[in-house]
Design brief:
The structure holds 2 protein chains of 2 kinds.
Chain A lengths: L1 H41 L3 E3 L3 E3 L5 H7 L2 H34 L2 H16 L2 H12 L4 H8 L13 H25 L3 H9 L4 H12 L1 H16 L3 H6 L7 H11 L3 H30 L8
Antiparallel strand pairs in A: 1-2
Chain B lengths: L3 H26 L16 H8 L1 H34 L5 H9 L6 H15 L5 H25 L3 H9 L4 H12 L1 H16 L3 H6 L7 H11 L5 H23 L2 H5 L2
Classes of the chains: A mainly alpha, B mainly alpha.
Chain lengths: 297, 262
């Protein structure tokens, strides 16, 4: 009798948890799993001018993508933008983060506010600022004219370097955020130990701080790479369609050309590329530093 | 320390470059001309007023605000239930469920939104507020989940047990003992999901219909079309000030590094 009651009690407590978790599970199944399944299905369908798509199974979309050198170049452009942005964001972000962990008081508050503010402001505000700076008759041009270095209207700079510069600028706050948390976790005792054993400040940085913050660097890098390779807004506003990039193509095939099956195929390929690189980096660093797993951002 | 001063100067130069684009909006908004120019001509607050009486801008601002409040409240509530269910019960595959809950944030938004668009077309949710709401809910929920889960794990269970020994029932214990301990975490989750939703452009760009844009999408469209008046830099500057206020509140209440980096 007692045994039966206890089992009933356990059952009700399990049902209770099941009820609590069900809104989350339902939300994820309907608005996360289902869209991704639909996207994969759509990438194998055939484009139709009248009904948007025909329900068939075809590899045609992928064939079209790999059969055209334009799209192959697009992959390389996107990868280039992703890699350069990640490299420069980490390079600058690490220095900033290291400095932020070495200062105290009001200086730290002000610098933190300046470096993290962009996270709290919509990216359009920042991009608008860049737009004003680079626009013909914008700040750069006025400055050059004032210094007598340039006369007349400047050609609007729309190349890959400007795109990488703007994307780097946008990602530095996130990199700083993750790396400050990571550098703070390095215990003072380890640094003191290295110093007592005779290491210079630079050596401590190189041999102790950097190796211990590799997980932070990797997660900041993955975040920046995933985000910049799939960024649509910044390329659309800064370079327009001068450079072919995968997100730009996804948007124009979806909203302008209404070819959803092909847009889905590009999206799936972008996802595969991102996952393969992310996974590769994680496996590689795990092997290199011989540590356990860490949480991905 | 040798080399410290040049390093310090470099950091300050980077800092100026970080906030320069945001600050640029202010002088440009103060010009008396009808187009954006730098340096500004004269001084007027006209464009702030023009942005304020611009019906489209204000409607979209109101819509963005509603959407952000609703989706952050919703995501914090759902995440809170789920965290308790996962942390307080025993079942096989717990780790997998945890990973599943943080899943949406590793999918790039431009890919995710295309999937949602196809689904909405089938479900009849295209261009609706409800569709937009669910899209914001699903991208905000993982962030709320991560913040709250670490909070639930660190709760002191002994306080709850003491309350129950002293005669409190489950509901009383939850509202009087457990929830107050989670105040900071919940505020943090609320602020960060609000920011995430309020500033989101990609989701809204694909999913909001022509007459139902959010503020960032409206700004994006005007920038793309070109020929914008200085009322856009004016509202941008207002948004930057709003962002700064949110940052200060978040930092004072919970500390940004502690809660956002996880």
């Amino acid at each position: 009798m007692n045994e039966k009651r206890r089992r009933l009690q356990m059952l009700t407590s399990q049902t209770q948890w099941l009820i609590l978790i069900s809104p989350g599970i339902l939300l994820l199944v309907f608005f996360f799993v289902l869209p991704m399944v639909k996207l994969l299905q759509m990438s194998f369908m055939e484009y139709d001018r009248l009904t948007l798509y025909k329900v068939v199974f075809t590899w045609e979309n992928y064939g079209k993508f790999f059969g055209d050198p334009y799209f192959i170049e697009m992959i390389f452009n996107s990868l280039k933008v992703g890699f350069y942005t990640t490299f420069f964001s980490l390079l600058i972000g690490y220095h900033v983060a290291y400095y932020l962990t070495r200062i105290r008081g009001i200086e730290r508050t002000i610098l933190t506010a300046a470096f993290l503010l962009p996270i709290f402001v919509t990216i359009l505000v920042t991009t608008l600022g860049w737009y004003i700076i680079f626009l013909p008759f914008g700040i750069i041009q006025n400055l050059l004219q004032f210094l007598g270095l340039h006369e007349g209207p400047l050609r609007w700079i729309q190349n890959i370097s400007v795109l990488v510069a703007v994307l780097t600028h946008l990602h530095i706050p996130y990199v700083v955020l993750i790396l400050v948390a990571s550098i703070q976790d390095v215990s003072q005792e380890k640094l003191d130990a290295a110093k007592i054993l005779g290491a210079s400040t630079f050596h401590v940085f190189q041999k102790v701080v950097i190796p211990l913050t590799v997980p932070g660097i990797v997660s900041a890098g993955i975040l920046t790479f995933t985000d910049s390779i799939s960024s649509y807004l910044v390329p659309a506003l800064i370079t327009g369609h001068k450079i072919s990039l995968m997100p730009l193509s996804i948007f124009s095939y979806t909203s302008e050309l209404m070819n959803w099956p092909f847009a889905s195929a590009i999206a799936i390929l972008l996802l595969v590329i991102t996952f393969v690189i992310t996974y590769g980096v994680i496996v590689l660093t795990n092997r290199m530093i011989g540590r356990g797993k860490w949480e991905m951002v | 320390m040798k080399g410290w001063i040049p390093f310090k100067i470099m950091i300050y130069v980077i800092m100026v470059m970080m906030i320069a684009p945001i600050l640029t909006c202010l002088p440009v908004a103060l010009t008396t001309t009808g187009y954006m120019t730098f340096p500004p001509v004269g001084f007027t607050l006209k464009w702030f007023y023009m942005a304020f009486v611009d019906n489209v801008l204000m409607t979209t601002l109101f819509r963005s605000f509603n959407l952000a409040i609703l989706s952050s409240l919703g995501s914090v509530a759902i995440a809170l239930f789920s965290c308790f269910a996962i942390e307080r019960s025993q079942f096989p595959g717990k780790n997998m469920i945890e990973t599943f809950f943080t899943g949406p944030r590793i999918i790039p938004q431009i890919i995710f939104v295309l999937g949602l668009m196809i689904l909405y077309e089938l479900m009849g949710l295209s261009d609706t507020f409800a569709g937009l709401f669910f899209s914001h809910l699903i991208i905000a929920m993982p962030f709320a989940f991560r913040t709250l889960l670490s909070n639930v794990i660190s709760l002191d269970r002994r306080l709850e047990w003491s309350a129950q020994i002293l005669g409190a029932n489950n509901v009383q214990t939850f509202f009087r003992i457990t929830l107050p301990q989670m105040k900071t975490g919940m505020i943090a989750a609320f602020i960060f999901t609000f920011v995430l939703s309020f500033n989101n452009v990609t989701m809204a760009l694909f999913l909001s219909g022509v007459g139902k844009r959010t503020l960032p999408v409206e700004m994006f469209q005007r920038l793309m079309v070109g020929g914008i008046t200085p009322s856009i830099p004016a509202i941008s500057f207002a948004l930057a000030v709003f962002g700064l206020v949110l940052f200060i509140v978040a930092d004072k209440l919970v500390g940004v590094y502690r809660y956002m980096a996880g």
